[in-house]
Amino acid sequence: MNRRSIMTQEAMKKVIAQNKKNCWHHLTQHSAYDKDGAAPMVVVEGKGMRIKDANGNEFLDAVSGGVWTVNVGYGRESIANAVRDQLVKLCYFAGSAGSVPGAQFAEALLDKMPGMDRVYYSNSGSEANEKCFKIIRQLAHLEGDGKKNKIIYRDRDYHGTTIGALSSTGQFERKAQYGPFAPGFVELTNCCCYRCPFGKKYGECNIECAHALEDLIQAEGPETVGGIILEPITAGGGVIVPVPEYFPIIREICDRHGVLLHIDEVVCGLGRTGKWFGYQHFDVVPDMVTMAKGVASGYAGISCTTTTEAVFDRFKADPSDKMHYFRDISTFGGCTAGPAAALENMAIIIRENLLDNVVKMGDYFSDRLFELKDKYEIIGDVRGKGLFQGLELVKDRTTKEPVDESVAAGVAGHCAAKSRVIIGRTNRSFEKHNNTLAFSPALISSKTEIDEVINALDLAFADQK
Ligand code: PLP
Fold it and tell me: Is residue 290 part of a domain?
């Protein structure tokens, strides 16, 4: 990293202490705040795919900001300049009005999403998903007696942190102890072939995981089910890629029962898998698509809920009916910094041909992960798409018994401490959630960085033996 921090070592020490004393961090065990606990990391700067912490340690970031976010890499001055220029011109006006970057980004985005026609702005993935739940529920009231309000979600998917989004989340570690949840959310089983919930093998399974939706809708009563939310590729639940038949079957069932198909692209959105969106790998056009993290690569807060014109049109009504419109509001959904950053973020992806890079580097990454699988018995499965990859760790390849949680943590810790490479882990191995290491390096990755990640893993697995 060639930029030097202008803070003195003394000042940095103070920041580390302030951080430990005053902040309450995401997903952090409280031992970190104990007197003798290792202080939570403070990240100071980033360039390309590398970050530096307050102690001056440099790391290769193989998870794009920890949570699949900084897709175009750190230190992009063109995005910073676009945001700065926009903020000086107009920082904000409520989202009931338009803005120049908001209008321009909506058109640019929809151009990449054939079949989608409208963009609704908000601030986070959770919030974008909540908009869809509200759309589904309001339509149930506008078009009927309000009963067609149930929303189906899958048992290993994550859709956000708010109570509505958590109600639609299947992950025990995120969800347990935060109830009671919102009513009307119904769980469908996952589609992980490696641990088929139906005990079947692909090729002989008749894609039961998809047909299970029909059974669930019948059990609930088709007149009560308004929508389904699905990650195109499950992220935190274990990097689960559905088989090609999965989404077309889901689409057909939804169409037959008037159920809106909502795809949550918060992780896959904008290039991570080698296409603009994860669902575009599968033969499906959803009714609603949500996105957040990769929309502006973390340079500004923005999320989008996109819908078809058909969904939008269902809110059209006699103007004398004062309640017949989407009565949702989000203060910062009108911020201009988000779409200004998003426009330049998308321009970078196009200018630098990053989708092609993701396809090429994703194949290379996957090949190298399979090489590791040949070498280490502990790797039960390699799966992913593009620069979104996972390794599931097992005690025994035949029984597929998951490794203890400490093993996955140990591998990640080894990579960070010994090789200065940050990798991710999906949820802990409660119930169906198994220990999967997750990788989502920036879309600018080259073979050099991927080899660095592989070498770090190689060393870590060798030390586990
Ligand atoms: N949906 C998915 C698939 C996610 O992975 C996340 C966050 O990790 C969310 C939604 C929630 O996004 P946010 O944290 O921006 O609310």
Answer: yes
